[in-house]
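call fold(seq) -> tokens
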Amino acid sequence: MPSGSMLGTGPLMKTPISFAVCLALALSSVVLARQTPGERADALVAAIQTALERPVTDAGRRVAAAKLAELDRMGPEVLAQKCAGYNRLVSLNRGSNDPDEKLLRRFLALYDQLPQAQREPFRFGRYLAYEILAADAHRHNDADLEKSLLRDAVRTFTAYPGDARERQLVQQLLDRAELAGKPAPALVGDTWLNAAPGTTRMDLGGAVTVIEFTAHWCSPCRDSYPGLLRLQERFGKQGLRIVLATRLWGYFGKEKNISPERELAADRKLFIEEDLLPFPIVIAPAPAGAGAAQAADANALAYFVQPIPHFVVIDRQGIVRRTDLGWEAGDEARLTAIVRQLLTER
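ret:
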């Protein structure tokens, strides 16, 4: 995995750093010499925050890198401020194709030195660092490293009751990673589009299968449909099967609190008439009870779905071979490559 610089990569706005930012940073430099170590560390954290105000620019990143390096050279008495500086930069690596491994691992090492009483502001950043490192391992097809990172995260998050939320999140990532090599759970539901009347279950052996977990409100999901249609056109006659899985949400567009019947009709129009999708689509009912809007349906639970679009690739023996999240440039080519490979297997 690439180690990169201390600030990683990602989309940048190549604009000059603002006058206000320059002034604030200049003033902070003037007073640094008169400050105690704690005050100096606080000022450096503030300078990092200022340099990375939205929109984040390449100039701002360079300033933040310099301030973070200075902060990191300070002694252990400013450990909490070091964590704060690194924590601000962790999220900038999310979604990057070349995350800053050195920065992420340094943050994790600093966090582990913090007393429990000082950890609360950085708990989610710690989870995020593990998530980014594991996602990068997955992107590089290093399943052993991905699972090793996530198992380590589960162990460390299990140690303290205050980490319960983050432990649940990272356990879901590990469960999803460990799906690879296991039998694919059947898709179940009473409502299907583009399927035989009376269909309530689809077992997933016998054909190379791509499942996409989607939703009517998900723009990246709809961005993926042309690629799936091309995939079906190219490999359908060789036995490729594509299936979509979604659920009812209780709304559609600007219409709130709509009936299941009305939402189903809107889904049918969207998927079949507008997007012209020929694939079987299972539509699960909306989960009941408190928190139902964010709850997962049975199919999503079986596949440990977090964000969507969420793709699962299954071989002819019904074994999960790969899962992927999101849809961006290059994903169609990667999906095409694995489908082609699985179609050659017997």
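The first helix runs from residue 19 to 32.
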